[in-house]
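Sequence only, no structure available. Ideas?
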Amino acid sequence: MNNQLPLFLLLSFFIFSCEKVETQSDPIQDEILAIENGLLPPFVEKGDSSLKMNIYDRMEHYNVPGVSIAVVKDGKLLWAKGYGIANTETGDSVTIETIFQAGSISKPIAALGALKLVQEEKMELDENINAYLTGWKVPENKFTETEKVTLKRLLTHTAGMTVHGFPGYSQTDTFPTVTSVLEGKGNTAAIVVDTLPGSIWRYSGGGYTVMEKAVEDVSGKALEVYLAENILAPIGMTHSTYGQPLPETHQSNFSAAYDGDGKLYEGLYHNYPEQAAAGLWTTPSDLAKYYLEIQAIRAGKTDGVLSKEILDQMLTTHQGNWGLGPALREIDGQLLFGHGGKNAGFTNDMMGFADKGDAIIIMTSADNGGNLIGEILRGISVFYELNMRNPAEIELVELPQEELELLAGKYKLNEEIPGIGEYFIRLTVKEDKIFVEDLNNKDDNLLSPISKTEFVDLNTGDRAEFQITRNPVGLLWGGSYQFNKVED
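Reply:
I predicted one. Tokens follow.
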């Protein structure tokens, strides 16, 4: 691991691997080339359409060794392509068959398995989940006296269950059972109900681990076996597996995991016994098949992996704009469903329309892949006029230096972060902008003013609003996180 070539050299040796989907004509290749040179930032200044970026430049900028993309258009897989390096130790390049860890994209695919059992009348969405669990049950407490944890609530993140996500296990760690994870005997706390089920939306990978146990208990099969037989194979997802650790049959063509500096994770990647929440290995092309299947059933396909009746329930909006598995939102009167995914060393996103045959899936082998994914999504969305994620048009303003200096200083978050404690950021003036240094994780932002109190980061899309009439001055970050100045 210590004799790796620098990332930029490897990228120059292995520029990309592009494989044809069906028969790609020259116009498709021209479209791909235009998109590769047309990545877009989250904001564009009013009247300026000149800022477009190259995918290889941005991969190097963000320290992202590998990227894989699939585009679904008009009900078919239009193109798929891999970029960069799958493994900097071997020099293997990314192809469209390279599998990546899907992270939380595992959840909506695994949800199909639970919904299959509902369709077969082996489970009910509104039944107490404990009716299906054997050997381990959701611990009863004051919150479950009147409201119960149900499959519907688990799938929509409204069951009141704890544990947001999972860090995974290195190759040398002891690999726990699902029951051990539920009991808090792994590397995360016990999964319990700590608020009234149905009262709030709160993302919970722990809840999906409960669902995993229920599916195994009802089906009588290990989750990876049940999903392979009933979901992955019927959809045609032949390059996908929920096997954890990664089965030998898939060891020949996987991407390694990389941290925010582009350095290889020890042991190449982490393992995840929390399979439903984070355990899927797959490709963008296979996830495109997921979209094509859902879209086909919505359009009337009768022999799909689920019935249209169950699928319509899956795509019904609940609290938090969530369905039974995917996140939901509406654009121009069209329902969009999707999910992001983040494991150690992998960052991914997918989104597509329920009733139009369009979707975009992007997977990266890096902790720092999020902003790059946004730039690619915007480039594809604008090129094909999909309106899934277009840049916001803004108009920058100039503020006097003395007004900017009043905003400088050290700010403290008004609540403590579990596992971190007090959270601080430091703001300084950098030319006509505000430079933000995160004193906890060493991230930074450069904020440009769009009004006297509103600022945006042109690269990341972050927004900040200063409360200049307060004493001390306040800062609302992203509409959610309240900071207050503690030092000038």
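The two ends are 44 Å apart (CA to CA).
Hope that gets you unstuck.
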